[in-house]
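User: I'm preparing a small set of examples for a lab meeting where we compare how different chains pack in three dimensions. I only have the primary sequence for this one, and I'd like the structure in token form so I can line it up with the others. Please keep the answer compact; I'll paste it straight into my notes.
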Amino acid sequence: MKWIFRASVLLLLVLSGCGNHNSGDEIIIFHAGSLSVPLRQLKEAYEKKNPDVSILLEPSGSLVCARKVTELKKPCDIVASADYTVIDKMLIPAYASWNIRFATNELVIAFNDKAKYSSEINAGNWIEILSRNDVIYGRSDPNTDPCGYRTVLMFKLAEKYYNMPGLTHRFIAKNSDYVRPKSVDLIALVEAHSIDYMFEYKSVAVQHGMRYIELPDDINLSDPSKESVYKTVSVEVTGSKPGSTIRMTGDYINYSITVLDNAPHRDRAIDFLRYMLSEEGMDVFRKDGQKPIVPAYSEQADRIPVSLSGFIGNKSLN
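Assistant: Understood. Below is the structure token output for the 318-residue chain.
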């Protein structure tokens, strides 16, 4: 059934006209849903400085962003992903030459005051609370959204950390009707009280004024020093071609961005990245609850455009 769901998603994108933009002095950005708030703020600031430019933002799960390029062949200048490996594995080298990691994040359990047991839940009892029959939680789809497969990786890490065999299977099976294409789609369900809790990025919870439970560093995918722990788990997700899969191995969270090799507005796109990677641009992410990587990092530093090279550090993030 996965291929039917995936085909339906791609058909909807075509029918909705997503990516069918007029050419001109514009910048087309396919981006992770969890980047919607900061990119909207950066768009407004950049357009104010450059009134002749129009930035077109198109949010979706990061895996869907890549498939719009690889399968649907939609015109696009910039792809901004919640997981750097999406660009590395799906866009380089056929569609892009480099990838810049620019921000981190962490997984949390987000909710509001109307959630059942909201006055009780904490970092010590969240498994017991979420396991209750009258509690409903949501998560995003691992085949479309990095937050979705990171949630599954977190379940696997929690199973080891708390020594609770079967936890992953139990948490994947429970409330499976509340899986959505991208993590920010869950916000409306929490606000409407259709679900009590959601597995979400901390930055999204902060941006939307939600309460959240922070999880141990051994499982929240936020700590570079825990990389060896994170890499003990993995999950397979749908790949860039029909019928293909990609194995995603646990890693600490790195957001990344690239300008496509055939970007229709390449010079403008690179100029926008200059603004985003500047101190002013990175301050937007700080205020939105997302820690920037300064200086930014790239494993393809020798391919980075000269005008962006000053923002790239020499040392590995690990």
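A couple of notes for your slides: Confidence is low (pLDDT under 50) at residues 1-5, 7-23. The chain is about 35% helix and 20% strand.

User: Perfect, thanks.
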